[in-house]
Amino acid sequence: MEDLTQWPPGPFELSEALVLAAQLVPPGLAVSYGGLAGLLGAGGPRQAGRAMSGAPDGTPWWRIVRADGSLPPSLSVRATPHYREERTPLKGHPGNPTAGPDGGPHLRVDLARARWEPDEAELAVLAALRSGLG
DNA sequence: AGCGTGACGAGTA
DNA sequence: ATACTCGCCACGC
Prior knowledge:
Layout: H1 14-22, E1 31-32, H2 33-40, H3 45-53, E2 64-65, H4 73-86, E3 90-91, E4 108-109, H5 111-114, H6 120-131
Parallel strand pairs: 1-2
Antiparallel strand pairs: 3-4
The chain binds a DNA duplex through residues 14-15, 32-34, 37, 43-53, 55, 61, 64-68, 71-72, 74-75.
């Protein structure tokens, strides 16, 4: 990580802050839509979802998932290769290895193991984003 | 102003 | 596990 303590912030739109927060999530980890908003102390899950839908290329949208670790079917399929590459802990029924064709539309991230817990530096950035809102 | 829609979440059956 | 409800809230019509 680089200079996380001082991002140039001007006032942020909430949607923009949510995208920046999403970009803090490290590979292999994930956080729920509601969790992301919670870390910013603003907005809610629906706003986080809306922000991800319009997020610029390069944003790791697959690291932001539903509270149960899933994503909408279409997105889940596109997310699968990323999870494989990042070794993201997935939840699978012991008997049913994976789920479906290419990893499956209904696979889920195992948030119990993969949940992102911001470290000190990351928390500082989140605080900066929070204070730079509006 | 209304009203439908959505990359949500929790609860209930 | 599926299929509903509600509550939520920003957007666009």
